[in-house]
Design a protein that fits this description.
Elements lengths: L8 H18 L5 E6 L9 H14 L5 E6 L2 E2 L4 H12 L2 E4 L6 E2 L2 E2 H12 L8 E3 L6 E2 H12 L4 E4 L5 H11 L4 H10 L10 H5 L7 H13 L42 H4 L1
Parallel strand pairs: 1-2, 2-7, 3-6, 4-9
Antiparallel strand pairs: 5-8
Amino acid sequence: AMGDGEKGFVERERQSALEFARIAADRGVHRIIYLGGLGRRDTETSAHLHSRHQTGDLLRSGSVPVTELRAAMIVGSGSASFEMLRHLTEKLPVMVCPRWIETRTQPISIEDTLAYLMAALDTPETAGRILDIGGRDVLTYREMMQTYASIKGLQRIILTVPVLTPRLSAYWVNLMTPIPASIAFPLIEGLKTETICENDTAIRLMPIPQMPFRESVERAIQATDKLEVPTRWTGAQQGTIPLNFNSGATPTSALLHDQRVVNTSASAHALH
């Protein structure tokens, strides 16, 4: 619900979780598998992370057993956090960043995330559990941006300043990427909290090999460059949020594509 605007999204997500739990019970659903977010409850200060955890609690308040998988940044198409990192690293030779770029996190590839979701279906022991999932590496956001730049062959200078607040950072992201401030602010606010797996229960119940961050990025870039996975984070918003191209008169990054398709019954020879 963050896509509907910064104000009130926690309450909208609360109502949605309660309604989902109620309808799932009414319709005889056997189990709910929910993908939430990492972050320690005793230190979190972010409405975004609080809402991720609250959603899991509210789903468990119903009668349907719940499996909650908790992840940090998902590296792949459709991840707002990853797209934000990509755009900033692609477009800014010199980045002036707040202190949150030194916060540690444990990103996970989209392939591993999907593997856990599918494995949970066939692993009854995951019912009624909260399971932390992550990739092989624990990195700071600075290290993730440097890794992305290295893969793309880019030279990037990253400077840290103590005065850039989450709100100012969100406006900066809004200016330099297609992600609006309403999405960027709660995401950035959450970056102040470390998001690292606190238990290894998921990997013990579902022994899925953990992909290194560098390989995760390489696969995400390859899939995007080949247009194999055309999904974007905006797909979940049903087109209600316009993309922002304020960073220049025309978007120059290869991350942005305009694809148009016309179906025809004519032969390939006739079209040629």
